């Protein structure tokens, strides 16, 4: 069930990713998909803080592509996490990333980011997991070597003998997979504690994940360890979001991992309930380990930070939902929309004047979600994705650390990003 892994050694991970359209087996049928290294569920890249990643990307498609390391705090310039790069058909491009030693442990992902074709390329299959090791250091000694599972959530629509990439309709019926498989089996012993890495690596849709009779104990959100573990019966993963959670095996038997019905507003989409995977609890029982309830990872709190600038960021769309805007403008890679100063903290009020939720995402730096529709929010850590309510707003605070250069903020519903809902953020000294 698990994707293959490519793991760094002695501070270096060297990877070649070949972008290729090829036939894959999805749900028992052969379909044409867009792949990395020939797989609909490509290898998981596994690094540690302070590592270097050398990545050669070979593009065999008949259109441009590129690569974004979603959520990673790394330079947005040069040959690093630069989404303004175009890798043309037939070209191989060499990316080089030097990660800081302060990189936060947790689950991230990688995917293409070429404007106008991000949604079709991700929907076609181009998305994979990236793990920054180190979460276990915050767990009690008896939980540091527990079994972990990647739970990569991606969906596909089929048209003829291929995964649909053109004329994508977000609300159309779709096939929801875990690691590219329809309803796979996950095994656990009664009472056993496991670490699950839940990641929404789909192009457009939301997941409201629920495990029958169980609670998820959240230890990291969007690649940031929480300062205090919290529990939920269900977790909403807006497009691009991730949660690292502890799960404990129940009595012997079978349990469904589900996505519950969710609607993104009167002008949005309704996603029906579906079974994602089946959890089978079997084998010798273990006494459930007590889970930490006090502080977990070091606290990161911007609530008392001096604010250098306050800004308003407005998400909107036209009446027939064919064009999307940030502050009344469609994306232009040659225009700087926001200029922020390195080593300062800004407070942004993100307003949504449309009738559907949007999945707000910013590159390079994480943010703290302060309030939603005027109500204080305590998320116990930073994040890089947050769903802004239909006809609502939230307030975030963000510190610009370590890196200067041009980067972006956008809606991570990639249909919306491709249709203009992206803006250029330049971080300057």
List keywords for this structure.
429 residues; mainly beta; Immunoglobulin-like; 6-stranded mixed beta sheet
What would you say about this model in short?
The chain has 429 residues and is mostly beta strands. The chain has three domains: 131 residues, Cupredoxins -  blue copper proteins (Immunoglobulin-like, Sandwich), CATH 2.60.40.420; 144 residues, Cupredoxins -  blue copper proteins (Immunoglobulin-like, Sandwich); 120 residues, Immunoglobulin-like.
Beta-strand content? over 45%
Percent in helix = under 10%
Order of strands in the sheet with most strands = 13-10-15-20-17-18
Write down the domain tally.
Answer: 3
Assembly type of the chains comes to single chain
Structural classification: mainly beta
Number of strands: 35
General description of the model:
With 429 residues, the chain is mostly beta strands. It has 3 domains: 131 residues, Immunoglobulin-like (Sandwich); 144 residues, Cupredoxins -  blue copper proteins (Immunoglobulin-like, Sandwich), CATH 2.60.40; 120 residues, Sandwich (Immunoglobulin-like), CATH 2.60.40.420. The chain is 3% helix and 47% strand. The protein contains 2 helices and 35 strands. Strands 13-10-15-20-17-18 form a 6-stranded mixed sheet, with no helix packed on it. Strands 26-25-28-33-30-31 form a 6-stranded mixed sheet, with no helix packed on it. A 5-stranded mixed sheet has the order 1-4-9-8-6. Strand 2 and strand 3 form a beta hairpin. The chain is globular, with a radius of gyration of 20 Å.
